[in-house]
Amino acid sequence: MTAFPSARRGSGLVFTSGLAAIDPDTLTPTSAGFAEQLESVLDQLDKALTEAGSSRGQTLKLDCYLADRQWFPAWNAAFAAFFGAAAPARTTTVTTLPIEGLLIEIQVIALAD
Q1: Per-residue pLDDT tens digits for 30-88
Q2: Is the Cβ–Cβ distance between 64 and 91 less than 8 Å?
Q3: Where is the secretion signal located (predicted)?
Q4: Which of 54, 61, 63, 101 could staple 29 via S-S, CB 3.0–4.6 A?
């Protein structure tokens, strides 16, 4: 598999790749539970933004993909807690995700420092 960057900078913005709780060597989810996958994705987001010279507080737009609408209340609560008053614009889509067992994937656009 070709490695891809977790984030790229351009024109004063940071664009993340789709972030998901996936083992890159086996292409399988790192956990089966939604809470664990969500925590992993949010940790990855903080790391990707920091490495690209940004932060969660500079996030302008977030796209979230959920494997099932049952996860929406948990996602909504985690989103509010994670971003607080600096919450970005967002879209949440319920869809089939590309890897069996994957429950959530997110991508963001943020301001670069």
Answers
A1: 999 999 999 999 999 999 999 999 999 999 999 999 999 999 999 999 999 999 998 99
A2: yes
A3: none
A4: 101
pTM: 0.94
- CATH code, domain with 60: 3.30.1330.40
Q: What is the gyration radius of the CA atoms in the chain, in angstroms?
A: 13
- Single out the residue of 55, 49, 43 nearest to residue 17, CA to CA: 49
Asked if the structure places residue 30 within a domain, the reply is yes
Does 104 fall in a domain?
A: yes
97 domain residue, yes or no:
yes
pLDDT of 2? 52
User: Beta-carbon neighbour count of residue 32 at 10 Å?
Assistant: 10
Total count of domains within the chain: 1
Burial of 57 (0-12, 13-18, 19+ CB in 10 A): middle
2 domain-assigned: no
The position carrying tokens 């807690």 is 81
